[in-house]
Design goal:
The chain has two domains: about 5-65; about 75-290, Uncharacterised protein PF01937, DUF89, domain 3 (Rossmann fold, 3-Layer(aba) Sandwich). Strands 1-7-6-5-2-3-4 form a seven-stranded mixed beta sheet, sandwiched between helices. It is an alpha/beta fold and about 290 residues long. The two termini are about 15 Å apart. It has helices spanning about 10-20, 25-40, 50-65, 70-90, 100-110, 125-130, 140-150, 160-175, 195-205, 230-235, 245-250, 265-275, and strands at about 135-140, 150-155, 180-185, 210-215, 240-245, 260, 285-290. The longest helix has 19 residues, at about 70-90. This is DUF89 family protein. InterPro entries: ARMT-1-like_metal-bd_sf, ARMT1-like_metal-bd, PH1575-like.
Length: about 290
């Protein structure tokens, strides 16, 4: 997806929030906002949303000296999500429940744990809503069909906290399909509240024998960069599933990606409609395939 001028105010708010989480002084906050505005006005007009978000976080890090301002929030998100998953284990399911559909819904409900957008969230009400409301775009039948014959799956994670719910979906995928390997991709370094290797360890992802943990930056790594080899591994997998709206923005033009996310942005709503995928609302849950 392309960056719109409507995105600029969001990037400024995102940078200011990160600066405050980093403990920035009023003067530092002012410097962060001015530096972001300067970058937006003088930068590359073709810079993608994820590239701009990376630039914003670099500005915050350089001015505040804090490389991971979301660190404490990520730990809190993991703990809260783990408590909710434990509660759900004790909730009896109905005979009509489709285990795969249920696990996918849990995974996308966890996508609400996101401190990049400015919309506040409530995990409890989101879980309840996602478990009963239909998908706004539902390509689960296609995903199910593709997984029937797949041996390898690339699963690109999104946020800390959310990754706890990903563990539930990974377990269901391994139990239901004959997957020999799941390539589980986390960020190689701190970026917003995106999941890192330590979050995957906290979530119990590494306890799954068929899961290989790898690290890659946001978006598609450029040739010659450390993450490029991981990207090539991703491309070789039989099925590729990316979590979260930011990943959807990065991979929506790739020829064969499943994108599982919650709609949090009017620009994304517009992009989905322009692709002929229908009308969505903020908060809708989506499982789409980039080839549509």
């Amino acid at each position: 997806m392309k960056t719109s001028i409507d995105c600029f105010s969001c990037f400024i708010r995102q940078g200011l929030r990160a600066a405050r989480l980093a403990g920035a002084s009023e003067k530092q906050q002012d410097l962060v906002v001015r530096a972001i505005m300067g970058h937006l006005l003088g930068g590359n007009p073709d810079e993608s949303p994820v590239e701009l978000a990376r630039s914003v976080q670099q500005i915050v890090s350089e001015i505040t000296g804090q490389s991971d301002p979301y660190g404490d929030l990520k730990s809190l998100s993991n703990a809260q999500a783990a408590a909710w998953v434990e509660n759900l284990k004790n909730t009896p399911s109905t005979p009509q429940t489709d285990p795969l559909d249920h696990a996918v819904r849990l995974a996308v409900a966890g996508n609400v744990i996101d401190y990049g957008p400015q919309t506040p969230f409530n995990l409890e009400s989101t879980l309840e809503r996602c478990l009963r409301e239909p998908f706004a775009i539902d390509h689960l039948p296609l995903l199910r069909e593709r997984l029937q014959s797949a041996r390898t799956l690339a699963y690109l994670a999104d946020n800390a906290g959310e990754i706890i719910f990903d563990r539930v979906l990974l377990g269901e995928l391994l139990a239901r399909f004959g997957l020999e390997k799941i390539l589980f991709v986390v960020r190689e370094e701190a970026f917003l509240n995106d999941a890192l290797a330590e979050d995957a360890e906290t979530a119990g992802i590494l306890e799954l024998d068929q899961v290989e943990l790898v690290r890659m930056g946001p978006g598609i790594p450029a040739p010659g960069t450390p993450g490029r080899a991981v990207w090539e591994q991703v491309r070789r997998c039989d099925v590729r599933l990316a979590k979260g709206q930011a990943n959807a923005e990065c991979f929506d033009t790739e020829p064969d990606f499943f994108l599982l996310f919650m709609v949090k942005c009017e620009m994304v709503m517009r992009a989905l409609e322009e692709k002929g995928l229908g009308t969505t609302r903020l908060g809708d849950i989506v499982l789409t395939h980039s080839g549509y």
